[in-house]
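Quick one:
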Amino acid sequence: MNKLPPEPAVSTDTLIGRRIRIQGRVQGVGFRPFVYRLAQQFNLTGWVQNRSGEVDIRIQGEQESLSAFQHALLEDSPPLAQPILKFAETVPLEMLTDFVIIASAADERPDIHVPPDYFTCADCLDELRDPNARRYRYPFINCTQCGPRYTLIRALPYDRPNTTLAGFPLCQDCESEYRNPLDRRFHAQPLACPVCGPQLSFRQGQTHIQQEEALAAAVAVLRAGNIVAARGVGGYHLLCDATNPDAVQRLRARKRRPQKPLAVMFPQQGEDGLDVLRQYIVLDAATAHCLSDPMRPIVLATQRPDTALVEGLAPGLRELGVFLPYSPLHHLLLSDFAGPLVATSGNLSGEPVITDSEQADSRLDRIADVFLHHDRPIERPADDPVYRLIADSPRPIRLGRGNAPLELQLPQPLPEPLLALGGHLKVTVALAWEQRVVVSPHIGELDSPRSLAVFEQVGQDLQRLYGVTAERLICDAHPQYTGTRWAKRQNLPMSSVFHHHAHASGLAGEHPAIEQWLMFTWDGVGYGPDGSLWGGETLWGKPGAWRQIAGLRQFRLPGGDKAGREPWRSAAALCWESGFDWQNTAITDWALAYHAWERGLNSPLSSAAGRLCDAAAALIMGIHRCSFEGQGPMQLEALADDCRDCDDSIELRLSMDEAEVLRWDWSVLLPLLTDQQASPAYRAAVFHNSLADVAVKQALSMGEHYPFKAVGLTGGVFQNRWLAERIVTRLSERGIPVYLPIKTPCNDGGLSFGQIIEWAASR
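Output:
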């Protein structure tokens, strides 16, 4: 057989070989096909490979082309990617004739970055609406730039066999897209289509309907004023018509949620997707930007008066939680229904959102009229994130789908991997190792077996996904918290962190360059070093070295934890403590509580600003019992908005106690709070101004003895925009920088991160 003559040898005199390693968020975001296309663009040869969370690149070509490639690698990466150059080094040339994507491999020390769940991208939305497209109206359309991630990943590297889509073999057309480096669905792990992917199913009693007919049936039920439990990305939503009072009232009654605000999802229309929202909501630029963020959070925004929305969606409040559809199923439902839908978490009160269809059938059966299921397994729950704009910035109220797992950096490496367990309410857990922290999505209250089961699962999953095994547990110092008791049962070393030290250190951890703080840590309750219930403290120092220098005047709280849902107890405590005459015969257990308080029975000492706000809500608005935590203070802030221009305040006295802690005295507020001649809105406004001004007074007076670089505001009380913004404004006018958390919630959802920072600094 004759052989062809060999091709002329290519000169390698001008070629350079280079090895590049990229870390950061580079998995599940289309980074490898991006590298492939970039190599083609610059006529380079080599390969790209996933390496357990990092991307390894072997590339060679002309010097000028290599430089352009490396620049574009970081500057022109896909929108969802967050690449970080780990190293780039010159290596010997090899016999490379083209550029290829090679199979993933595992490293001994993986650098994992688990992506959150993403909203539906514009390209997929166009396909969803295109009658000629193969995935027209397919509720699970996705690509490398959108779709679920965290809720379906079972293991890493992020390849299809390691996801909940492993049980859905790709059809020929999808396989072709998956294997084509030039296709935007190249290695899109949740890839699916109507032929080979998950399907919808509708259940109403014994009636079962599949696929497109299931969607139409669900929309018909919504139009009839009934309630649908619809399975989404991270769990179930309970849906009903947001303009139908009867439907909303039935949902509230069945879910036993008489007054807690309900979130509303609006159809996406117009150039920026917000045209429908503008009919119902006052949208400034910052609110619009937050709503349109890729995480697609629920945003607390001001309602317009006299719209078609049901009046009782957020009783007693001016703001409503609103959001845009983020999954293709949501887009189809909202588009077909052609109006806003109440979309509240499909769960029982305080528990994590339900993810499993069988659990939904059994546990939501008394709430929902029908079920819109699908058969794409959800590996772990992820509720919707919630934000509120305070002091010109969006502040997280709850972490969830779209922004968690939240990855943060530590100022110094840790000596051992840690798992921090948060508090008891609004629980998140945080896994930390080396200089990294990963905070989980919101889990909820640890008051039920299911909450505890999800708490354990999320902690285990984070360790498994990131390839890190915790060697120590960090918990709240409160001995009765479920997380604390759980930690004691584990066969691991454990350390405890005081509640408000964690709050303070969490905010300080977001700004590690600030060396000395004056930190206001105001919330409802937290176990203090003296065994009392803190919550109105001023701390001075830094992580690992906090000193209590001021606090709210203490009072004995009748009923202890009951006061969180019964504000009359806080009001009664203040009146009894100061000898102020206030009684309410409508409260049947008033006398019993007083006798117990007199004897010191179940009446722990408290300095909680949150309980002071509860008392004000009871005295001004007659809110004696609440159906959800924070109801009284939230409605009190909304009431104060009727006197937004009010600048009046009452000066609260400051005096030193026996422990040399400066106490601010609430007793001078009682005559105002009970003054029936003044309007409730005026009293609410003066109350807020007085609390803000006492914080300002402390900050201005303490600098000489306790020098600080910045003031911090953290704890659940500072979710109150009126209070926070008045403090920020008054101190900023005097040149004092003021910070609130912007990455983690200022409420107990940020405790797990703060526990890591505080423990690391206390070593």
